[in-house]
Amino acid sequence: MNDPIPTASGALPVHEFPDRLGAITVRELRAGLLGRDMVWLLIGVQVVLAIAGIYALQVSSKNPSAAHGTMQFAVWSCALIGLAVLSPLRALRALHGDRESRLLELLQLTPLSAGAIVFGKWVSLAVQAALFLVSLLPFFVLRYFLGGADLVGDANILLILFGFSVVAQSVFLLVSTFPRFMRGLALAGLFLILFSLLFSGRAMSGFGVFDALAHPFRNEGSDAYWILLYLVAQFVCVIGGSLSLAAQMIAAPAENYVGRTRLWFAGWVAVFVCLIRTTRMPPEWGEMAVIALVGVGIAAVLELGVERRLLPAHRPRRLLGRPFAWLLLPGWQSALLFHSSLVLALTVVAYALDGFQQALLVIPSAVALVLLPRAILVFLPWHWFGQRRLAPYALQLAFALLALGVAAGCGATSAAPGWPQFLPPLGFWNGLAWAKSGDWSPLPGACWAGVLLAVLIARALIELDAAFDEKAAKRR
Amino acid sequence: MSDGTPLVELRDVHRRFGEVRAVDGVSFDLRRGTACGFIGANGAGKTTTLRLLATLDQPDAGTIRIAGMDIVDRARDVRRLLGWMPDNTPTYVNATVVDYLDFFARAQGFRGAERARRLDETMAFTDLHPLARRPLKGLSKGQLQRLGLARMLLPDPQLLLLDEPAAGLDPKARLEFKAAVRVLRDQGKSLLISSHILSELEEMCDELLFIDAGRIVHQGTSAALRRDGGAGPAVTRVRISLVGEPGALAEWLAVQAGWRVVEALTDGLRAEFAQTGREALALELRRIVGAGHAVCGFQVEEERLEDVFVAVLHKTATNGRSGGNPPEMPAASVPPPLPPLS
To answer: What's the ipTM?
Structure first.
């Protein structure tokens, strides 16, 4: 059935296999695989690894360890850069162009749902990442002849790396639906976290986690089944939540509703709790709840920010009047209720399992992460600050000063800073509580506060300068 | 074929963007098998109304029904019935004509031989077969419009919404487009076409819909529009061609009872006479010739639609200033039955 159908143009083929795939997947795969960036990426990696392989083979007889080290460095570098950096970055422009050129509007009028569009794009990106991974495999096997290779361990790590890649792709696909300035913020946030990890010393100790994951059954015994299951479930929840929110971003107003996204995030929190419980890492439930709150907070901030900026609030009539409909409706009231409920549930769990002290640590985070963004956006009387556009900076400045004061008041402790403390706003808001617990250093919070302070002062000065210039121009 | 039942019903539809009332209480019906021209100045609310109809936006208030289905509650069902052609055809950068249409055919759910057949039919209708392998980035504006038309027609929709389809087209492409619209109308499809080129809309459309500042100011046939919104039924517009300068005739007409010079032309002038009877006009012609003017042509003209449009807007503005309601919409007249499918 692959024969072309005779038509007036004589050029309309009938392919049975692509017909079994979604329209978006077929188009994106065709465009992606033939795209210049993918072709050059594949060729470039093959050339680099071929050169490294030839060099390693030449020196292997004289210096086997150097040959093994060269190949080890080359293949893992290519895998990391390709899967952890370049593949997600390709997703960053997946929906942006279609949105700007109004192609998405045409797609909305087809029977394809917004979810199908987003899912098709993501599948195409995931398949391209898998193809990249497959193109590396011969060089991984080549290491076996150059000093040996832990093929099972490498396969596990590669699978986890691939999992991370497709998760990151889903998140970046979501980011690609945002306007330019929000995409810039997302990228800045990514690099912020990466640098935080790098300088906190967690990146090196993180390799220990990789080692544990390379041989989970050797290290974790029978718990490994559960850990792997939770890991996969976490990947699925983050992918589902991100794609669902991305679909909401591009959906026509009549289909814009957030129920699925919120359920995905609730699922993610539940799985996270199970994972932490099984791995006993970190040991304190209160800390676990705080870390889980980061995810909830990001979801809340994204959803509220997204809705305020882009989405006309639509309440599907079919949902009105149903029990618990408030959990699934768009609108800030519903979002606030939903995320606050999630935070309350986590607080109760933390209290039940770890005592009141840790639950108290959760509450400021809940307030900071869920209520604060809304308060900043809506309830704050902007006119109190005089110049409306400077008001956010004034507010951030106040927070930064507060955090700096908290951090300075706590004094330095001997404990090494942990990575969650580097993530704003946790570094600011929980500095006092964590410092009092004796296990946390206020140093990262103070560092961030100092940097933020400097940036804000600079930006405020620039804005003021521009405002004065504008006034002067108007006078002329 | 028009069967008189409304395919599209808008009732008191409102849409605001901040302080701007883009659509402000719009109500109208569009019957099946009717081609309707949608006319208004820039920012009058044409595109917003079309986007509401295309389910790409939602009204703040009011209801829109297509084939009896509410566009908010049953958006997916409504979309199966409609085709949407924006003012610019969005394209993929590295695709060819056939790739682009093939993708949208897949997106519409066509598979295998059915997809190939639909592609072949729409490409034949829009004469795109010779361009099948051409990359989209090299297509002219007219070719892109044909591509947009082909994409829109793939699912064989009942209601076609076209936003400024003739903008930027050369005369040949315009003629092709007009012919395509006539064929589609004859096939029984309903069309709502927004445009600034009123004369073309008059040729293509059964009725015209005027919108101004988000409100419908007139709906009806072009004849009804001339009767209700133009200079008035008691006025005849004539074009008088002269041998030599028209200045003397203009001065002479200016002092004659019932005459008003509208426009001076290079070879004559355009004027209005406050009577309509053929005998009265023959008498006036005899008087003009008798006064010594070298008349070489005397032609009764229909009022131009552009002038009627301006007159309608003027009337609406005057009513608005005096605090009165906008003019009542005349009852839409049923157009004559269209010829059978070719």
So the answer is: 0.75
